Amino acid sequence: MEGEQKNGINTGFGESFCRTEAETGRQKVAAYIRVSTDLSDQENSYETQERYFQQLLTKNASWISAGIYSDYGRSGTNGEKRTGFKRILRHCREGKINRIVCKSISRFARNTADFMIALRTLRDYHVTIMFEKEALDTAEPTSEFILTALGAIAQEESRSISGNIRWGMQKRFPRGDVRNQKLYGYQYNGKMVITDSGYQYKDIETVEAEAEIVRWIFQMAADGMPFHTIAGELNREGISSPESFYSRKRKAHPEKGQLYKNLDEGWTARHISQILHRERYAGDVLIQKTFTLDYLSHQTRINRGEVTQYLVRNHHTAIIDRELYEEASKIVRMNADTYGKHRKKRQMRAFSGRLLCAECGRYFHVRNTKFHPIWFCPSTTLNNGKIICHSEKVYEKQIVRMFRRAVMERFRLTTLPLVDEAKLADIMSGRFALDDARKIPFSDEAAHFVPQMQKRLEDACRLDYIERDRSFLKSQISDAGRKIESLQRELCLLESRKQSHKAELCIREQEMKEIMTGLKETEQKLAKEKEREQKLTERMNYLEAYWTELEENYDCREKTIAWMKGLPVGQSGTVEFLNGITEEHISAFVLSITVHSPLQYTVHWFDDTRTEVEMHTNIGDFRNTAGHCDGQCMMERDCRRTGER
Questions:
Q1: How far is CA 273 from CA 135, 217, 221, 287, in A?
Q2: Domain parsing of the chain, residue ranges
Q3: Least confident stretch, 181-185, 341-345, 376-380, 456-460
Q4: Of 127, 240, 613, 642, whose Cβ has the fewest other Cβ atoms within 10 Å?
């Protein structure tokens, strides 16, 4: 199929696209890009693809650009984890896209099931897709069969690659051919080890200062010292903790819910446990502790006999003797038998992944879920001699009261200021009866609150122009970059003129003055453009994170809209909304709740606005009193306690 030339760009679509265009008019065309790893060469490939498709979409007069959808660092065998892939299919269903261009079938999907579902979705909604590398277009009647076959070939290619890797491991592992790891206490020495079979891997040597710490940890564990006590001793001595892959990633690319990158939790019981579990410190290697379930999901599982394990003795230089390792391992197994059986799988709750610690940045965890759930920052429970967070625990009932207060204050649902008094404490605590609506001083806005909130959610689902806004911001950043380059060239030219005038015997004072003035003005313009570029980049990074969060909760918003459609009209609907929002629907409205204290919170809403909430009383202070459910009593007691101080 030969491509055609339009506006100086080879579209590669041929006559089939001309027929589609003639039938439907201007096409809303989107591009899809996927890069599966973070390698630098693929990063360049991503940038190259983005520039190419941006030019393709904007310079073709017969197209309306629907944006560039992308997934960076995502495998093509699992569509569930690809936000851009899911968005482009959803927008096709919503009629926002008529046509898709993609570099190749393997970039679109390597899973035949996902590929076929995507093709059926596109066909059902009359959306065509063009794969440039294969020169295939679903606008051609004969292309669908070929695409189906090539989709299966792409999946088979992934299976073949995975099979080859698995076959190689099955051959290497029985021979004991396994690589070294750069663990705490070891470092690569720049040499290579070549086995009898010809397998090569990097050689390691011990770092004596760290090796001494490892020996001490194993000895203390063998003597029965608790792991958190060992960690506390190391922290008190000021010994730096091991830097893992995850800690390096956290500092380089911090994510929401993780410990702030400027904080260091030091040695923890987790570090001690990880060291004690590693047989490599005794010079041995146990191969296939974990295994990959399949090449489609890429899920890793602990090996409990599903695949053969191999123990390689004396693989490298040992830091501890095998007897000490066995003694410490007995303690590890005893701890697992004692504490492991009490561990239960975490149950997701309404506020899971929503409560952020204002002091250290981590997500709050929950305990005591059967009776009165309590949320707490995990950094406060380290018990390792380091105090990096002072956050207080918060009862879930207090968070429920706070959130309902936030809703009522932001949307002005009451005519009176909200305080912890009896007639308002009920609805804030979730004990409000529907037939008592007349007791609440609702405002006129409360009667129309539910349909208005429903419309807000529907607009958030329908009017999401992330790709358009991303393209606009990137064009502004590129424009700032071009201006910076131009100003830098101008600055260099003025500097050279300045130096040449200084070298002349007869210096013309007026001309030198003009050069100096030009230099100063250019430097000011350059600084201003650099500041503009930095602000735009920061804004872009912030919006990328916000858009990702927003997209993750799309399905939840759809379910919440369906729930709200069933609510009664008027104030009774508002009451049911307030009683039900903190169950399964909170994720539709809230991206995060930052907990400053049990009395102070910041609610980050789905529309990227924030509400500061200040509570008058903490329900945790009244848990064991007869009148703790009475808001008026709570307020009076709090006032008395404040007066006593």
A1: 54, 10, 10, 19
A2: 5-166, 186-342, 394-463+556-644, 466-543
A3: 341-345
A4: 642
Q: Tell me, what DSSP letter sits at residue 613?
A: E
Query: H-helix or E-strand containing 568?
Result: none
SS3 39: coil
Q: What is the DSSP letter of 81?
A: G
Question: For position 22, what pLDDT does the model report?
Answer: 43
CATH no. of 5-166:
3.40.50.1390
Quick one: DSSP state of residue 306?
S
Estimate to the nearest angstrom the gap between the alpha carbon of 83 and the chain centroid: 11
- Give the pair of three-digit tokens for residue 391: 């956050």
If phi > 0 it is left, if psi is from -120 to 50 it is alpha, else beta; for residue 597 that is: beta
User: Which tens digit of pLDDT belongs to each residue from 404-440?
Assistant: 889 988 988 888 776 665 344 445 555 555 555 556 6
Q: Per DSSP, what are the bridge partners of residue 202?
A: 192
Q: Is the pTM of this model over 0.90?
A: no
Exposed, middle or buried: residue 479 (CB in 10 Å: 0-12, 13-18, 19+)? middle
Instruction: Give residue 316's Cα distance to chain centre.
Output: 38
Q: Which CATH class is domain 186-342?
A: alpha beta
Q: Which two tokens stand for residue 453?
A: 């909130």
Taking the C-alpha atoms of residue 612 and residue 594, their distance in angstroms, rounded to an integer, is 10
Check if the beta carbon of residue 7 is closer than 8 Å to that of residue 59. yes
Which residues on neighbouring strands pair with residue 394, listed in sequence order?
375
Taking the chain, what is the end-to-end CA distance rounded to the nearest angstrom? 84
